[in-house]
């Protein structure tokens, strides 16, 4: 029989997944900010880079609460999403549609994060990890706000320019 695994193990595994993902996002956001032509979108990416650095720190605090080393686990999902974003940057470079493409790539990242943080928060509640719940929720709220902001930027100008 396979070794018994618990929700604790799943929580730790998923924490490592999102820790890896967040650190990849820290590396990617400056490239997206550089590529964006709209000043508003550029500023949005720069602001979210700062927030994302905070997300990495919050995760490190949770590893500490669990008395585990902060370690990432390769997340193929985020690598795929980032790769798609890179293709858009290459293929639409210098075109009016580039910013719309950047917004769509960024929203795919945010939705991945929202899915992960939503799950982790629920599990932390079930495991009685109340400090972790607070930290996960703080990040989740910033991801949701970022996603909304991206939708607003897209509606306000990016999509109009691309049309
Ligand atoms: Fe994040
Ligand atoms: Fe994010």
UniProtKB/TrEMBL annotation:
Domain of life: Bacteria
InterPro entries xref list: DUF892_YciF-like, Ferritin-like, Ferritin-like_SF, YciF
A Pfam family it matches: DUF892
Protein's name in the database: Ferritin-like domain-containing protein
Gene source species: Devosia ginsengisoli
Top-level taxonomy: Bacteria, Pseudomonadati, Pseudomonadota, Alphaproteobacteria, Hyphomicrobiales
């Amino acid at each position: 029989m396979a070794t018994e695994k618990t929700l604790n193990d799943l929580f730790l595994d998923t924490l490592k997944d999102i820790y890896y993902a967040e650190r990849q996002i820290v590396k990617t956001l400056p490239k997206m900010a550089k590529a964006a032509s709209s000043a508003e979108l550029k500023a949005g990416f720069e602001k979210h880079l700062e927030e994302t650095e905070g997300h990495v720190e919050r995760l490190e605090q949770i590893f500490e609460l669990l008395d585990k080393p902060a370690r990432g686990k390769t997340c193929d999902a985020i690598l795929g999403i980032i790769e798609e974003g890179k293709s858009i940057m290459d293929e639409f470079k210098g075109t009016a549609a580039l910013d719309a493409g950047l917004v769509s790539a960024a929203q795919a990242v945010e939705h991945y994060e929202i899915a992960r943080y939503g799950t982790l928060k629920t599990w932390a509640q079930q495991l009685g990890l109340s400090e972790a719940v607070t930290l996960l929720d703080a990040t989740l709220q910033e991801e949701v706000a970022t996603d909304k902001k991206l939708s607003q930027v897209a509606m306000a100008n990016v999509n109009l320019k691309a049309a």
